[in-house]
C-alpha cells in the first residue's frame, strides 16, 4: 500500500483491518452453515451473532476510511476507485451476513442426503470472497498479482454456480416435495450463490481499477 498512500500508515492499517473483517465473516459463515446443517442450533446462533457484530465493525471502518480519504485529500486520482472497491466489498460481507440471518429466520429444511452438497456450495461461495480479498490486497501492494487472484474468483464462482445448479436439479427432481418447498430450498441456494456472484462483480470493477493504475 505504500505506493498509494505514502506515509499514511493509519489508512493502510484500517483498510487491512476492514478486509480482515470480510475474511472473518466468511469463516463465521462457513462454521454457521455447518452447525445449521448438523442441527447444532445454539452454536449456529452464536456464529450468527458474531457475524452481525463483525459486519457492524466493518461498516464503521469503511465509513472512517472514506472520511479520511476525503478530509486528508488522499490519492484524488484513484480515490473513486478505492471507495468503490470498499463499498462493493462491504456489500459482499452484507450478503454473507444477510444469508446466514435468513437461515435463522426462515429455517429451511435440511435434506440429509444433500447436506454435503449444500456445505460444498457454501464453502465455494466463501472461497470466491476470500480470493476477492486477496485480489484487493494485491491492488494496493502488488498489481502484477491482481489478475491471478481475479481468475481464482472466476473459477470459484463457476464452481459455486455448478454446485448450485446440481442442488436445484436434485430438489426439483423430487416428486415427494411440494413446489413451495422446492422454491424455498432453491431460494437459499441462490442466496449462497449470490455471494460468489457479488465477489465476481467486484473483481470486474477491480480489473479496470488495476489497469488505470498501470497507465
UniProtKB/TrEMBL annotation:
Signal peptide (UniProt feature, chain positions): none
Highest taxon listed in the record's lineage: Bacteria
Matches recorded under Pfam families: PhoU_div (PF01865)
Matching Gene3D superfamilies: Phosphate transport system protein phou homolog 2, domain 2 (1.20.58.220)
Similarity section: Belongs to the UPF0111 family.
PANTHER family, sorted: UPF0111 PROTEIN HI_1603 (PTHR36536)
Name of the protein this chain belongs to: TIGR00153 family protein
Amino acid at each position: 500500500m505504500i505506493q498509494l498512500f505514502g506515509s499514511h500508515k493509519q489508512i493502510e492499517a484500517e483498510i487491512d483491518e476492514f478486509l480482515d473483517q470480510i475474511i472473518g465473516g466468511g469463516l463465521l459463515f462457513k462454521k454457521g452453515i455447518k452447525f445449521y446443517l448438523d442441527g447444532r442450533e445454539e452454536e449456529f446462533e452464536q456464529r450468527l451473532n458474531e457475524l452481525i457484530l463483525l459486519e457492524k465493525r466493518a461498516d464503521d471502518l469503511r465509513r472512517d476510511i472514506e472520511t479520511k480519504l476525503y478530509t486528508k485529500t488522499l490519492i484524488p486520482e484513484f480515490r473513486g476507485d478505492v471507495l468503490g472497491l470498499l463499498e462493493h466489498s462491504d456489500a459482499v460481507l452484507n450478503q454473507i451476513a444477510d444469508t446466514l440471518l435468513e437461515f435463522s429466520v426462515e429455517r429451511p429444511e435440511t435434506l440429509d442426503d444433500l447436506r454435503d452438497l449444500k456445505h460444498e456450495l457454501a464453502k465455494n461461495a466463501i472461497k470466491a470472497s476470500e480470493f476477492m480479498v486477496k485480489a484487493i490486497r494485491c491492488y494496493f501492494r502488488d498489481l502484477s498479482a491482481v489478475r491471478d487472484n481475479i481468475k481464482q474468483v472466476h473459477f470459484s464462482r463457476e464452481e459455486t454456480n455448478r454446485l448450485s445448479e446440481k442442488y436445484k436439479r436434485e430438489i426439483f427432481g423430487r416428486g415427494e416435495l411440494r413446489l413451495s418447498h422446492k422454491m424455498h430450498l432453491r431460494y437459499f441456494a441462490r442466496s449462497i450463490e449470490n455471494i460468489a456472484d457479488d465477489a465476481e462483480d467486484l473483481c470486474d470493477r477491480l480489473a479496470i481499477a488495476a489497469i488505470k493504475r498501470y497507465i
